[in-house]
């Protein structure tokens, strides 16, 4: 298992679909940011599902791979993000 941070920028027509797929595998952090552990099989499955949704000429999904979550330090300032359901 490896720890991943996933960030996406996709056409608004596909945002909800991409969000739902990522949410099935990872923890949602903020609008287009997810994080969590994935096995090699889960990663391959997730990539296949995302690849069937996105348009590679318009959309981007970036995976940051880390050995574990112990080396990542995060903190938050400002208001917490809106619930995803309020985002188009």
UniProtKB/TrEMBL annotation:
What InterPro entries does the annotation carry? CRISPR_associated_Cas2 (IPR021127), Virulence_VapD/CRISPR_Cas2 (IPR019199)
Question: Does Metal-binding appear among the keywords?
Answer: yes
Which residues are noted in the entry as Mg(2+)-binding?
9
Listed cofactors: Mg(2+)
What family classification does the UniProt entry report for this protein? Belongs to the CRISPR-associated endoribonuclease Cas2 protein family.
Can you state the subunit structure given in the record? Homodimer, forms a heterotetramer with a Cas1 homodimer.
Protein's UniProt name? CRISPR-associated endoribonuclease Cas2
Organism of origin is Thermococcus indicus
Taxonomy of origin reads: Archaea, Methanobacteriati, Methanobacteriota, Thermococci, Thermococcales
Encoding gene (name)? cas2
